[in-house]
Task: structure prediction
Amino acid sequence: MKLGIILSTKNEETNWNALRLANLALSKGDTVSIFLISEGVEYQLASSPKFNIKEQVEKFLASDKAKVLACGTCLAIRKQESNEKCPEGKLEDFYNLVAENDKVLTF
Result:
């Protein structure tokens, strides 16, 4: 299965659960794409000992079946730089995530 996940919040528990689901899907052999939009581009800043998002992100990005992109406009609004864990994408990438995946979940 090809799973698309849209993260639009910086809520640490919500994003932690979304990433745990993404990692479970990868462990079952699925392909997972994540698009970060709105305050979701800040997802990695909200990690805590209770909701260790950084650990989940590292695990996710270690897979060759995982992809993450962030809305470039949303990054710019927040004066946030593109990086390996939050690479800049475009609206076209968001559209492709929706169009090309079997299932799309929003968080």
